[in-house]
Design brief:
Blueprint lengths: L1 E5 L3 E5 L3 E7 L5 E8 L20 H4 L17 E4 L9 E9 L2 E8 L4 E9 L6 E9 L5 E13 L5 E6 L9 E6 L2 E6 L12 E5 L9 E6 L5 E7 L5 E7 L6 E3 L4 E3 L3 E6 L2 H17 L12 E3 L1 H4 L5 H14 L3 E4 L29 H9 L3 E6 L3 E2 L4 H5 L19 E2 L5 H17 L4 E4 L19 H19 L4 E4 L9 H4 L4 E3 L6 H11 L8 E5 L11 H8 L3 E4 L8 H23 L1 E6 L1 H4 L1 E7 L5 E8 L7 E5 L9 E6 L2 E6 H6 L2 E5 L5 E8 L1
Parallel strand pairs: 21-22, 21-30, 22-23, 23-26, 26-27, 27-28, 28-29, 29-30
Antiparallel strand pairs: 1-2, 2-3, 3-4, 5-10, 6-7, 7-8, 8-9, 9-19, 9-20, 10-17, 10-18, 11-12, 11-14, 13-16, 14-15, 15-20, 16-17, 24-25, 31-32, 32-33, 33-38, 34-37, 35-36, 35-38
Length: 696
């Protein structure tokens, strides 16, 4: 949209529907002025801060864009450093502000030391998302130690308490909604595991009186896949702030002479139309501006993954048999999972030895790949590059390549250790192994897994070992980017025991993510809701499998209907499917191909919520509003049948739409479908249907 440079050092970021305003006050402090609905641009000003007294200081009360440690500022800071003379305080002054195309650079510097901070703000046409980050530069000759660095500080406008949404899940139970009202003090969402994790999410959603379709919502998501911290505070002056960035737990960074540290991005926005519009904003933004350009505008293929059918017992004959069944079903991508390499007959050996197992594939892996290609499918392969089994040729040759302390127990979670990704030789080994496989074989897809958190984080190669957490994550990004640059036709999926890396940092580099190891359709109904709150639907891999995770068994078409609300995959043992099951699967895959452009790229409207309404109805609408597809399903057993008026949100009021529900056909205006709806009878547990809608 636009960046306005006003008098008195006032700067306005104008998005499609909002203003974000910052500036400099008469004391020289950086000031946050406004974030939300547009106002008269000429009325913005950086008002004076209240007078000080013995307990309340100007810095305490100031609504700053970026808070630094030092002076009479006693709240949480975004940046804390140590200068060579042991001074730990920062005193900033404004340097200048420059607008270049769609980016504002707001520069501050320390009044005495060679430290410069550039606050960056980027806006895009036709959306309300602002990208924020900070660049911390050492302009001197001596090293400066960074003890804490956040990417952005966001001040929320209301003086009244906000309720914050996040998730509090676990492996196999990710994306469980939490709500906490912050009356005062601090609220923290974070990870200390080395990944963004299964537990809490690196984002915030703040609201007061909002629901799916109405009310003001503020939100922000950190683009980072390692240890993060989202720090929400409300002070005695009724100001609510949120800072997002690297977790300062066991963190330091040596900023050497003339070096710049660039923080991860924060994507933040405001919605005046509730959580639904928030999700749609982020979905469109992610597709247009975040996802890697090789595949961001292309539909993701229907894949089959053979893990559930064979586990480690892989060979050409059995994989080909599965491939034939998958191809007949309409699958486009066949992925062989764990077990193809080294001495990998179980999860206790072979990890790190990325050479094809000759006993399992005596003629090489190309025999299988050619079989798959002849069936009309691309071939994909599983890797877990960051890990090593102690029982492996790699570890026997290089035991020092794993994170370790000589004096501490090496914890082999899942029988594996974590490779020291901060070492260049380790990085080169991983890249070379994967590059060799991609160069020598017709592989079009990589599933990059990570099945345990970091521990024993010793890295003798680092002068500052607390940099390890950050450097590990950056090494993953770097290797993925190098592979994609050399092999641009290869798609790469981020899998981390399921939902361990589904953040926007991963989405800047990976093309899609594995949502969760829990593939139960019952659980996935709610997990997918919370995944798509701030993440794009397109990247959400959803499989139809045979595993029900202790929930009652659901019909095959029900499982398909749930999985078809993301990027469809199949992971069951096809050799045990009946002819009827194979026919159902073939029909469902064909239907998905007809509608996937709507699901993967459309706007999602959560019309009915099973937690609230006992029924799920998700409606996906194309940007031009000419097509839509609705997924209607029920899990409850409290009624034999339930009559509801099914309303279709997001359609064009003036257009006439054709649709079929059950045996009944309708032609109605978008206004009618939205406001009156169509009566539908939902019959008990497991009821489901897909409704296609098209404008005349």
């Amino acid at each position: 949209m636009a960046i306005h440079m006003l008098k008195d050092n006032i700067f306005v970021l104008e998005t499609k529907n909002t203003h974000y305003v910052l500036g400099v006050d008469k004391y020289g402090y950086n000031r946050h002025i406004h974030w939300g609905k547009k106002c008269n641009i000429n009325e913005y000003e950086a008002k004076d801060i209240w007078d000080e007294n013995s307990n309340h200081t100007r810095l305490d009360m100031a609504r700053q864009e970026y808070t630094v440690f030092g002076g009479t500022m006693y709240r949480e800071s975004d940046l804390k450093v140590q200068f060579p003379d042991k001074c730990r305080e920062i005193e900033l002054e404004f340097v200048d502000a420059k607008a270049e195309e769609n980016t504002l650079t707001f520069t501050l510097k320390d009044k005495f030391y060679p430290l410069e901070i550039a606050l960056k703000y980027k806006v895009q046409d036709n959306d309300d998302i602002i990208t924020r980050w900070a660049e911390i530069k050492n302009t001197g000759d001596d090293t400066i130690i960074i003890d804490r660095v956040f990417s952005a500080e966001l001040t929320l406008p209301s003086q009244y308490p906000y309720t914050f949404k996040n998730t509090n899940g676990s492996w196999g139970g990710e994306y469980v909604e939490t709500e906490s009202t912050l009356e005062g003090g601090a609220l923290v969402f974070d990870s200390k595991r080395g990944t963004s994790g299964h537990n809490q999410s690196p984002y915030f959603i703040a609201y007061q009186n909002a629901d799916e379709n109405q009310g003001d919502v503020y939100f922000g998501s950190l683009a980072y896949s390692g240890n993060f911290k989202v720090l929400c505070t409300r002070d005695l002056f009724y100001t609510t702030r949120v800072s997002l960035g690297l977790n300062d737990h066991d963190f330091k960074y040596e900023l050497n002479a003339n070096q710049t540290f660039t923080t991860p991005f924060v994507f933040c926005g405001y919605s005046s139309q509730g959580f639904g519009e928030m999700s749609r904003q982020m979905n469109r933004f992610a597709i247009n501006h975040v996802l890697p350009k090789q595949f961001n505008d292309k539909v993701l293929p229907v894949l089959y993954n053979s893990w559930e059918a064979t586990e480690f017992d892989v060979n050409t004959k059995d994989q080909t048999k599965l491939a034939k069944l998958a191809a007949a079903m309409g699958v486009e991508l066949f992925v062989m999972d764990d077990g193809w390499f080294g001495a990998r007959n179980h999860d206790r050996a072979g990890l790190g030895d990325w050479v094809v197992n000759k006993k399992k594939f005596p003629k090489g892996i190309d025999e299988l790949i050619k079989n798959v290609n002849k069936l009309g499918m691309d071939f994909g392969l599983w890797f877990e590059p960051e890990m090593v089994n102690p029982d492996s040729d790699l570890f026997r040759a290089h035991p020092d390549w794993a994170y370790h302390y000589d004096t501490r127990t090496a914890h082999t979670l899942r029988h594996q250790l974590v490779l020291n990704m901060t070492r260049e030789d380790v990085q080169e080994y991983i890249f070379d192994c994967m590059d060799k496989m991609l160069t020598e074989h017709n592989i079009k897809y990589i599933k990059w897994d990570m099945n345990r958190p970091l521990s024993e984080t010793g890295a003798e190669n680092l002068d500052c070992p607390q940099e390890l957490w950050y450097r590990h994550t950056q090494a993953v990004y770097d290797i993925v980017d190098r592979l994609k640059e050399k092999h641009p036709d290869v798609a790469i999926e981020s899998c981390s025991s399921g939902g361990g890396r589904t953040d926007y940092g991963a989405l800047l580099h990976f093309d899609q993510v594995w949502t969760s190891d829990n593939t139960s359709a019952v659980d996935r109904m709610m997990m997918q809701k919370w995944f798509t709150y701030l993440r794009p639907t397109k990247v959400m891999r959803a499989w139809v499998t045979d595993v029900n995770w202790y929930n009652p068994p659901m019909s095959l078409d029900f499982r398909f209907h749930v999985a078809m609300q993301g990027s469809l995959g199949v992971g069951g043992n096809l050799t045990k499917y009946s002819l009827t099951d194979l026919a159902i699967a073939r029909k469902m895959v064909s239907l998905y191909k007809e509608i996937r452009h709507i699901v993967q790229f459309g706007d999602l409207y959560r019309v009915l919520d099973p937690d609230r309404d006992e029924i799920l109805f998700n409606l996906y609408v194309t940007e031009d509003k000419n097509e839509a597809v609705g997924f209607l399903s029920s899990l409850v057993t409290r009624f034999m049948q339930k009559e509801i008026p099914l309303r279709f949100m997001g359609l064009d009021d003036e257009k006439i739409y054709k649709l079929k529900i059950g045996k009944e056909k309708y032609e109605k205006s978008g206004a009618y479908l939205k406001n009156v709806g169509i009566p539908v009878t939902v019959r008990g547990m497991g009821y489901n249907q897909i409704i296609k809608i098209k404008a005349k």
